[in-house]
Amino acid sequence: MAVLVIADHDGNVVRDTTNKTVTAALALSGDVDVLVLGKNAKGVAEAAAKISGVRKVLLADGDAVGHGLAEAVEATVLPLAGGYDAVLTPANTDGKNFAPRIAAKLDTAPISDIVEVVSADTFVRPIYAGNALETVQSSDAKKVITVRPTAFAAAADGGSAPVETVTAGQAAKSAFVSEEMVKSDRPELGAAKIVVSGGRALGSAEEFQAVMDPLADKLGAAVGASRAAVDAGYAPNDYQVGQTGKVVAPQLYIAIGISGAIQHLAGMKDSKVIVAINKDADAPIFQIADYGLVADYKTAVPELMKALG
Amino acid sequence: MKVLVPVKRVIDSNVKARVKADQTGVDLANVKMSMNPFDEIAVEEAVRLKEGKEHHAAGTADEIVVVSIGVSQAQETIRTALAMGADRGVLIQSDADLEPLAVAKILKAVVDEEKPDLVLMGKQSIDGDNNAVGQMLAALLDWPQATFAGKLAIGGGKATVTREVDGGLQTVAATLPAVVTVDLRLNTPRYASLPNIMKAKKKEIAMKAVADYGVDTTPRLKVLKVSEPPKRSAGVKVADAAELVSKLKSAGVL
Asked: Are residue A153 and residue A205 in the same domain, yes or no?
């Protein structure tokens, strides 16, 4: 069997989510090809060709695929699908957008957000915001799978696969209008190695910024927030970590003034190390924290800043 | 414009899902159920399209039909949407836990019958977390899709949608008819007022069965087991920030 991995990249660089998806693909088959969709993405294709274990790279160059329009991705992938038993892509907003569309056209049940490959037809995926893990066996001849990148190690570089050009599809009924990417020196919340999150205890938007931003900058961390803090207007919506917000799994998660509602825990409990700072010793967050500091954030955060040097 | 809003009855987002001891699924007996939070946002936006709230021109939508596929208690979920301002409901009764592909096929049959100009729905349900049905419905209909909407504008025969994507926002224009799936930031759903709850009791809910739509809903995925994720246990309390930093350094995360 052969597997097609649809690459994740920023137009210039292959994101390591692609390498991680290649690792998942190699667990299914030794014949892994990578499809790079983009505008002037030859450099990306050449970088993808260096990932160890990749058989060949297919490059589809076009405006519509460059903007990731699902209809165009579908039109690019469908003619290629005959040659593959599985199509894999990272479970980011692009992959989540186009993968189910491709699956429906292939009359196959998509398998979303896998965290483990048990065998060529059996996978583990989180449901109920990670409160349960479902092991599913697919009876479809062709599989369409999105892969949770944080669950797989990145395939290293060291290969030299050939690059071939394929036809990029179009999107007749939808069009790209504009984009507004956040320019921040901080890492993206979903991909950050360290996340510092603030809760309702911070009391105001000004205080939230004054406390969280310097700490995040010191640690090179992304800033998150509990739903309570977002609902109270202390932090913007896109900071929200939780069942209905973003699900994160960084190396280190520091929760400040967060009590630990189920809603929030669902979004961060897969973090490698969890730290909780809260003045309420009975806060539920302490039940899952590796390190708990019972203290008012007003004194604890300045001390933490000092201890970090 | 006619808007179709599919809604799902799911475990309430404030309830912790518990895995059954025999690992066959999640225990939903005596658990509080509610409308999927993302679907509530879709209903709210549809009602705003009708009322002309926010940036929408009044009467952008003239009819809102809510459809649910599920157990008979899903009538309550539809009733909630009717109390928020939807016009009528369709319940397609099923006791089976249908896969997204099957749901998309049933919804396609509903769209063929109802002929809406816009399908507005939650980006994912908080039980299966598949994030798939909207995209699959669009594919089966050969309609354009705009997923993860944080802003929606209807005009010129198009849905112009600002999408919440990794790293920022992307705006796309989808020619109607289209499927739009909604994200958290689109709006804050209203609480239905008592008079509207009373009014909703008189609104029509058509009762259907999956068999009425003649689609193949055979599962493609066999659930071998549903297990608890590895449990986290409480760790240690540290005395102060200095001890915390030294612990984190020895754990190799700083």
From this structure: no
B96 contact A CB<8A = no
**Three-state secondary structure call for residue A79:** helix
Instruction: Give CA–CA dist B17/A306, Å, rounded.
Output: 40
pLDDT, tens digit, for every residue of A57-68? 999 999 999 999
Q: Which residues of B touch A252 (CB under 8 A)?
A: 248, 253-254
Instruction: Supply angle C-alpha A188, A239, B178, rounded to 5.
Output: 85
Q: Do A272 and B245 touch (CB under 8 A)?
A: no
The pTM score is 0.92
A15 in any annotated domain:
yes
- Average pLDDT estimate for A63-75: 96
Torsion angle of the four alpha carbons A244, A249, A252, A258, in this order, in degrees rounded to the nearest 10: 20
Which residue does chain A place closest to B100, by CA atoms? A109
Contact (Cβ atoms closer than 8 angstroms) between residue B77 and residue B8: yes
Same domain, A234 and A131: no
User: Could you tell me which CATH number the domain at B2-250 has?
Assistant: 3.40.50.620
Which helix (DSSP H) or strand (DSSP E) does residue B207 occupy?
strand B205-209
Phi and psi at residue A157, to the nearest 5°:
-80, 165
Cβ neighbours of residue B78 closer than 8 Å, sequence gap 6 or more: B7, B66, B68, B89, B90, B91, B205
Provide the pLDDT for residue A219: 96
- Tokens standing for B243? 């001890």
Residue A275: pLDDT over 90: yes
Are B226 and A182 an interchain contact pair (Cβ–Cβ within 8 Å)? Answer: no
Confirm whether A111 is domain-assigned: yes
Structural domain includes residue A175: no
Give dist(CA A52, CA A25) in Å, integer.
12
Residue A223 banded pLDDT, cuts 50, 70, 90: very high
- Interface predicted TM-score (ipTM): 0.95
B244 in contact with A at a CB cutoff of 8 Å?
yes
What does pLDDT average to over chain A? 95
What is residue A128's predicted lDDT score, i.e. its pLDDT? 92
Whether A290 has a pLDDT exceeding 90, the answer reads yes
Q: Please state the three-class secondary structure of B44-99 as a single string.
A: HHHHHHHHCCCCCCCCCCCEEEEEEEECCCHHHHHHHHHHHCCCEEEEEECCCCCC
Asked if residue A241 belongs to a domain, the reply is yes
Rounded CA-CA distance A283/A200 in Å is 13
Q: What is the reported pLDDT for A246?
A: 85
The total domain count for chain A is: 2
pLDDT(B129) > 80: yes
Flag whether pLDDT at B5 surpasses 80: yes
Confidence of residue B231 (pLDDT cuts 50, 70, 90): confident
**CA nearest B228: which of A39, A6, A124, A30?**
A124
Measured between alpha carbons, how far is residue A190 from residues A18, A183, B109 in Å? 15, 15, 37
The proportion of chain A whose per-residue pLDDT surpasses 90, expressed as a percent, equals 86
Q: Write the CB contacts of B103 (distance below 8 Å, at least 6 apart in sequence).
A: B69, B133
Residue A171 has pLDDT above 80, yes or no: yes
> Is B153 within 8 Å of chain A by CB?
no
**How many other C-beta atoms are found inside a 10 Å radius of the C-beta of residue B236?**
10
Range of the domain at A83: 2-166
